[in-house]
Amino acid sequence: MITAKMKEYGTEEIHFCYDAKTGLNAIIAIHSSALGPPTGGTRIVNYANDEDALFDVLRLSRGMTNKNAVAGLNYGGAKGVIICDPAKVTDELLLAYARFVDGLGGKFTTGEDVNMTEDYVRTMATVTKYMAGVSGEGRGGDPSPYTSRGVFRGLQAGAKLRWGSDDVAGKTVAVQGLGKVGYGLCEWLHKHGAKLIVTDINQAAIDNAVAEFGATAVKPEEILFVDCDIFAPNAMGAIIKAEDVPKFKFEIICGGANNVLVNDAAGDAIQAANIMYLPDYVVNAGGVISIVLEIERKHTDELCNEMVDKIYQNVIDVLTFAKEQGIPNYLAADKYAAKIVDDKRK
């Protein structure tokens, strides 16, 4: 079953990590080293079972290869997942995971992702140098602000293609998830005059968004179906289902979450409904750009922002390619990235 999954996703290596003392249960998937040393974040999620964790890490690592390719980064794709209740994370567990990362000898450099904080990365960096996302000289620290910036720039490009202007003033954006990336996106949108509808499982985050941005709050189960111009998913993936598409009241999907389409059928249904999907790994590449600059010890805000702002043009290039090929946006992004990887491999 494992080999079949590796063939299905094109994955080079899978490492299952278990530590009896700390109870660490983790999976590291190295999807491709064709572009260069694999890199990608590690997330901490209390998955229902190991099969769900494997499914997630395989999709995420493949997405990292595509993300790095479209962003023009000479790094391969990989991802790590720690199967654990985020409220029960200990330093000992983090250090156990870091020792597994270190044992790969540079095959995998990682950093922040869902529920993984800069403090956690700093702790793990005490036992391995293959960690990024720590503040300091030549380092970028928390990459989420760059992710938020990139999502906003991608959203602007989508607006330009859809409505002829990248000015989002007066547009209504439904933001799902008010973590670091989602809240940062709200800051950008509010600054540029957009109206916000928000939701999260954290009531404090909702209250802050309402107070700071004048946002309208809705229940988590309502956010997909509100009347808005743009839907911005910034929580977990696999939320867009083909059967729900007829109930959607937005024209663009653009957010920081990975793998928001449940399957290809969802992408096809969106295309048929004339909803513009901006492929997630194209718009949310700001974080990995920051990480790569940190790995190379040449991170500055100026350089990172300059590279992140290129996401605007990347979106236009991918969607133009989709139109030329006559294929859905999600498929165009995969083909666009695959050509870059294949050319590099050859």
Description of the structure:
With 346 residues, this protein is α/β, with parallel strands linked by helices. The strands form two sheets. A six-stranded parallel β-sheet has the order 7-6-5-8-9-10, with helices on both faces. Strands 1-2-4-3 form a four-stranded mixed β-sheet, sandwiched between helices. It is built from 13 helices and ten strands. It has helices at 2-9, 50-70, 91-103, 118-124, 144-163, 180-191, 203-213, 264-272, 280-283, 286-295, 301-308, 311-325, 329-345, and strands spanning 13-19, 24-32, 42-45, 77-83, 172-176, 195-199, 216-217, 230-233, 252-253, 276-277. It starts with a helix and ends with a helix. It has two domains: 2-62 and 75-124, Rossmann fold, CATH 3.40.50.10860; 144-284 and 313-341, 3-Layer(aba) Sandwich (Rossmann fold), CATH 3.40.50. 45% of the residues lie in helices and 14% in strands. Helix 5 (144-163) packs across helix 10.
Q: Helix and strand succession?
A: HEEEHEHHHEHEHEEEHEHHHHH
Question: Into how many domains do the coordinates divide?
Answer: 2
**Distance between the amino and carboxyl termini:** 29 Å
CATH class identity of the largest domain: Alpha Beta
The residue-averaged pLDDT reads 96
CATH superfamily of the largest domain: NAD(P)-binding Rossmann-like Domain
Q: What would the principal axes of the Cα set say about the shape?
A: globular
Q: Which regions have little confidence, pLDDT < 50, spanning 5+ residues?
A: none
Strand order of the largest sheet: 7-6-5-8-9-10
Tell me the β content. Answer: 5-15%
The CATH topology name of the largest domain reads Rossmann fold
- Secondary-structure arrangement, i.e. CATH architecture of the largest domain: 3-Layer(aba) Sandwich
